[in-house]
Amino acid sequence: MKRRKRRSIFPLIVLLLICVGIMLSALWLSVKKLSVDTDITQEVIGTLTNTEPDIPFSDLVVEETEVSPGFYYQSLTEDQKTVYKEIFQGVRDQQEFIYVHSPDSDEIGDVFHFLLYDHPELFWCTGEMQLINYDTYSTLRPSYTYQGEEWQQKKAEVESAAAACLAGVSMDAPEYDKVRYVYEYIIRTVDYNMEAPDNQNIYSALVNKASVCAGYSRAAQYLLQKLGIECIYAIGTIPQQGPHAWNIVKCNGQYYQMDVTFGDPVFQQDESSADIPADSVNYAYLCCTDDALYKNHTPDPVIVYPPCTSLDLNYYLLNGRYFDNYDGYTVLEGMNQSIYAMQPSFSCQFAGDEVYAQARDDLINNILPQAAQNLAAYYGLGTVWYTYLEDTDMNVFTVYWNYS
Fold first, then answer.
1. Fewer CB in a 10 Å sphere around the end CB: N or C, the chain?
2. Are 54 and 81 contacting, i.e. CB atoms less than 8 angstroms apart?
3. In sequence order, what E strands does 101-146 have?
4. What's the confidence (pLDDT) of residue 26?
5. Rounded distance, CA 12 to CA 26, Å?
6. What CATH number matches the domain at 149-318, 3.30.2420, 3.40.50, 3.10.620, 1.10.3470?
7. pLDDT in tens, 105-119
8. Whose CA is closest to 392, among 357, 365, 358?
9. Helices 175-189 and 213-226 meet at what angle, rounded to 10?
10. Crossing angle of the two packed helices 105-118 and 78-92, in degrees rounded to 10
11. pTM of the shown model
12. Nearest CA-CA partner of 238 in 40, 34, 1, 39
């Protein structure tokens, strides 16, 4: 599959330690390069002996139901869950300083990561923080992109954009229909742009309509959560390209991989100069298996994600375009039916690399020319133009018809 060579959801971590002119008892500094992700910068100011007689912890008013659905929250110990709730409450309320019941900067950094992975609605928190450790607790100072009236305005814009999107799907719709709707909506309304502002959060995708994979994936998570669908923000890398984010969704009781960013054929179009309709969708990355996705994705080794093994919701299987073996006549019939219906494209998937290799040359040299002749005869055209694209990772073959 041809894609942009540059795709990065996060810059490399640069951890800065600053401690100038401070004389503190029992002071130490530490640096941590967090292995879980690359979007959070942690500045550890130091560790102090506890000198405050009354530590100003905030009373926790976070309900368990607000955090318990979180995939990453569920992986924490009870003490870590308390820290998670304390940070969640502080970031939600835009507190300047957050007091947490942990003196461990590593633990706090990991929990902070997990919080932002579970809660895409906290888009105003950049993921950067300053941290001071005491003997028994720590003071955390998060970085916020928006504050005050601007913060309220941005929140309202996100909520309005989400409402406009979700007006197109019923809460009573089957779970698969909800997942597919969100997948298609984001692909068709958001442009991939590495220079887009706010591109690590949902504001970029939902309001500005331009983002990178972090924004795509967090937007999908945010919208599906509103529809009552469990959706995990998954992280890892793309070999030879760098960090990447996608989703894992739970649908009809089973988990499936989903990559909204890779579902946009714009990556093929950029390098091939192909004339692809603007609303085209590559469905290979909708509700697929680990075996399929991990051909070109590598999950973070620290995190154990739910296994995704079912083909039940494979788009091509559901639509009769998934082939365990190659039969050129059957594929030609499918192409002809798409022509009769004046559909902009025909797409099919083959069960494995061997089947695809068997089909490829015949598709290009024999089946496509026959289908093009049929198109010309059916619509009375003197010349027929078509474009075909190959996703060799997912064994998907797509042809785009030009009816003019």
1. C
2. no
3. 125-133, 138-144
4. 23
5. 31
6. 3.10.620
7. 999 999 999 999 999
8. 357
9. 150
10. 60
11. 0.86
12. 1
